[in-house]
Structures are given as structure tokens and as C-alpha cells.
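Data card: per-record layout.
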Amino acid sequence: MAGTYKRLSGRLYCTSATHLGYSRYDVGQGDLILFREGDGQRLGRVLGLATHDGCGQEYRGPARRGKGTRRAPRLLVLAANDTLSHGFERHVALEDVLEVPRAPGDFARFFLFGIMPDHATAIAMSEYGAMSDSYLGRYLDGGHVAPDWRARTRS
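The structure for this 155-residue chain is written out next.
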């Protein structure tokens, strides 16, 4: 029996999520998350809420006040494997969400799909600080990122 799923409306607070840089501490439909899985971490994208597991048992958690339990749905996540070659379903508890980063921009496009520069240019880009979204967007769109890269290029 498949789990029970529903769309996530609004945002949910993640108690363990870091709020450094551009990361958020709340999660919504379609957000990327970095979550704890076993002894490691995994990247995933939120598809909705899982209210029941695959056996039909409702997800429950400790009550906020008093004794007993309460409904505690988990995030339904499309998780990526380590090489980004396939994805799989995961039900992630909110306390296992470690980070809610902003959506990847030009760095992900450059790293995964862009035409890579030769090693010397890549090192010069890194030393110049141009391996970030603001520079790589212009690089990918055919612009010049840093006019002095060629001068800084090492053989």
C-alpha cells in the first residue's frame, strides 16, 4: 500500500535548519532541502506532505503539551543520489532538515551543464572569486566575467 500524500500549503518551521547566508529555516512546496539520512546528508526537493507511511500507519509525534501523541506528517521529498543520476522518494521528519538553501542558480548550471573552461582558466576564476552565481551567469551567457583572467592564467 502506498503512503498518503497531500500538497504542502504554506511553510513549515524546521527546528534543526541552519539560517546562515541565504538559507531559510522554513520549508515550502518545491524547496530544495539538505536533510539527515543515516550518518550522512542528502539533497532533495519537497514534493508535498506524507501523512502515512507505506504500510498505512499514520505518522505520529510527541504532543506539544501533556502526554500522548499528535499527527506529525513528514515531508515527501524527491531525493537525489550522490552522483545526481537518479532520484527516489523519502519521507523526511522536519527535525531532520538541516538546511533550506535558495534555489541553485548559475553555479549549478555551470557545474552540471556548462562547457568547462581549461584547468588554468578554472583556477584563475576560483582565485578571482568568480565561481559564484553573479559571475557565472555572464560566463554562461557568453559575456566576460573578469577581463584579467587571461592575464592571471597559469600554465
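Known properties of this structure: Strands lie at 4-6, 11-13, 26-28, 32-37, 40-52, 60-62, 69-71, 74-80, 87-92, 97-99. The helical segments are 106-113, 119-128, 133-140, 149-152.

See the next section for split statistics.
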